[in-house]
């Protein structure tokens, strides 16, 4: 039997392993365990992931690895787990149905299940199927007690005690029916918003561009909607986001930009654009790739009430001194370990199943 300290130490070693792949140039380090067995193999998995999914560019993969290598450090993990009691956890088998919109998007659930002492049964998205099984194998070498606690499957899930499933609003309805007799966390579509007042600095707006463009806007933590005051001038916004203009050189992004622009023009929708991003007035939260929706507000109090009423549709709120749960500009794709998706405490759930 593993204790909590052993599990933590294994993930710390995994963080060290990932740190080798988080810089502009991949560099093998001497102090990483089992590097001779795994370093070249992971480079190959990265290549396969890129070939299989055109959204998984070198920059996006590097950013994901960098994020996890930073989070998987002793002080971060201890701070995250400090408030929980792991004393009486009976090992259960927890199934995870993962999304594949951004690299390693299901890793936090994978980490949470294993760090809680449970066994994990993973059903991956076909869009992101190369990275995690290899990292799981590395974990098993670092901590052999993880062997037989990690299973990947492409078949129908069976023999599990609880489930964490991430999907669209449509698939969530099937999940809720199919898993109605099991303890579950079912995640639906969510999007992130930013509240602008017109008083933002250039640095604020440049940071906001990271929240919009990182991972091409494919993540639920990416800002897809702006709330702006009546009469807001978008000039400063467009100037500040210009640092991301090379994104239009990425073929898949450019294709989406051209397609959505053509749709808007043919439909005679009013929109503003700068050659690599379109903004369109729209009440929806989920905007297409290369587009950000915006909506005007008159009253801050009315907007706060709207955000509260629509909280089930919102993952992150980016703002400055607007709501208690806000996230600073530029930080949506840099979550801490305790920043749970949909604000549902995964560890608390896993400790009571």
UniProtKB/TrEMBL annotation:
InterPro entries: Ald_DH/histidinol_DH, CoA_reduct_LuxC. GO terms for biological process: bioluminescence. Keywords: NADP. Pfam families: LuxC (PF05893). The keyword NADP applies. GO terms for molecular function: acyl-CoA dehydrogenase activity. This is Acyl-CoA reductase. It comes from Pontimicrobium aquaticum.
């Amino acid at each position: 039997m593993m204790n909590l300290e052993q599990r933590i130490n294994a993930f710390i070693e995994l963080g060290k392993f990932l740190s080798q792949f988080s810089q502009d140039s991949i560099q093998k380090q001497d102090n990483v365990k089992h590097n001779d067995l795994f370093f070249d193999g992971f480079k190959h998995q990265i290549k396969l992931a890129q070939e299989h999914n055109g959204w998984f560019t070198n920059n996006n993969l590097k950013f994901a690895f960098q994020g996890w290598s930073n989070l998987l450090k002793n002080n971060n993990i201890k701070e995250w787990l400090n408030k929980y009691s792991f004393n009486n956890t009976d090992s259960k088998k927890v199934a995870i149905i993962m999304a594949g919109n951004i690299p390693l998007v299901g890793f936090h659930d994978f980490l949470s299940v294993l760090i809680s002492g449970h066994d994990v049964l993973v059903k991956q998205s076909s869009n992101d199927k190369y990275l995690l099984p290899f990292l799981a194998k590395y974990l098993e070498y670092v901590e052999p007690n993880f062997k037989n606690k990690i299973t990947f499957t492409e078949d129908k899930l069976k023999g599990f005690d609880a489930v964490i499933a991430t999907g669209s609003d449509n698939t969530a309805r099937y999940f809720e029916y199919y898993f109605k007799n099991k303890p579950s966390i079912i995640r639906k579509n969510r999007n992130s918003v930013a509240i602008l007042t017109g008083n933002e600095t250039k640095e604020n707006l440049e940071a906001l561009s990271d929240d919009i463009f990182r991972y091409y806007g494919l993540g639920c933590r990416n800002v897809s909607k702006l709330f702006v005051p009546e009469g807001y001038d978008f000039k400063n916004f467009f100037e500040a986001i210009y640092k991301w203009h090379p994104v239009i050189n990425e073929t898949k992004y450019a294709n989406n930009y051209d397609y959505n622009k053509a749709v808007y023009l043919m439909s005679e929708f009013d929109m503003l654009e700068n050659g690599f991003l379109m903004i369109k007035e729209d009440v929806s939260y989920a905007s297409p790739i290369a587009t950000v929706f915006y909506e005007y507000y008159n009253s801050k109090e009315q907007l706060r009430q709207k955000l509260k009423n629509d909280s089930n549709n919102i993952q992150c709120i980016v703002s400055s001194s607007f709501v208690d749960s806000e996230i600073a500009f530029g930080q949506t794709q840099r979550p801490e370990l305790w920043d749970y998706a949909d604000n549902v405490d995964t560890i608390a759930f896993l400790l009571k199943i």
